[in-house]
Design brief:
This protein is of the alpha+beta class. It has helices at about 5-10, 30-40, 85-90, 105-110; strands at about 15, 15-20, 45, 45-50, 55-60, 65-70, 70-80, 95-100, 125, 135, 140-150, 155-165, 175, 180. It comes from Murinocardiopsis flavida.
Amino acid sequence: MTAANATEHQDRTVNGSAAGSTDPDAGQVDSARFRQTLSRHAAGVTAVTALVDGRPVGLTATSFTSVSADPPLVSFYVADTSSTWVRMRRADRFAVHLLADDQGDLATRFATQGIDRFAPPTRWTTDWNGPPILAGTSAHLVCHRHTTVRVADHWLVVGRVAKTSIDESKRPLLYLHHTYGRFTPLPRPD
């Protein structure tokens, strides 16, 4: 497929299936197969936190990505069914934490429903009006909410980055095949 044909195909695609397609298999992948396929894609693991009505809220997201360098924008997706999102969506500011490779337990904690995610052993701080900042992460970005758009059964949340912090001594946590792990670089060829 040429670049022009790929662009033309992309322009005709609506909600994951080709507009006007006569292919009987177009758009027929079930959600279990879809998740199984995407489990083969390694993703960084983030915890997103906010302060709502003076109380901390947070969730785990592996859908984090950069959007733009100028202005500095990042995004993540959150399920429409998330009980945390019901509260978090009211926050104008949030922090995205790039979890360190020793924080798999924290990632699981922030993905678990019905618990106080900020109770010990979670370590965190905040200033008088900022989002909670988790301790021990490889980096974090404090963002102002820029855009929120519903996309099918998820919300796309875009934030404008106001501040960042990096801990060079920490390596990132990755998620692959439904488990957490770490990145090991391949040896460089001589």
